[in-house]
Design a protein that fits this description.
Elements (H helix, E strand, L loop, with lengths): L9 H10 L3 E6 L2 E5 L5 E5 L8 H11 L4 H11 L1
Antiparallel strand pairs: 1-2, 2-3
């Protein structure tokens, strides 16, 4: 795993999650709620094209998506 963490905008992150099977179930202001068929749920803030803070990205990947950071990095590289 590289030392440089992947940084995405909220819009990009949502596109990647949709590629992984998540669906937008609700939008409340600038917060997009996504759900996967297996029950995983997450909320992604979309503020213009601003990048998501690194700590928030890490929290979403590890806790909401239930993925290791290196596995997410591989998924991202294959998606791009």
């Amino acid at each position: 795993m590289s030392n440089k963490q992947i940084v995405l905008s909220g819009k990009e992150f949502i596109k990647l999650l949709q590629h992984l099977g998540f669906e937008i179930i609700r939008i409340n202001g600038s917060h997009y709620r996504l759900k996967h068929q297996d029950g995983r749920v997450t909320t992604i803030p979309v503020h213009k094209n601003d990048d998501l803070p690194k700590g928030l990205m890490r929290k979403i990947i590890r806790e909401d998506l239930e993925l290791e950071l290196d596995i997410f990095e591989t998924i991202y590289k294959n998606w791009k």
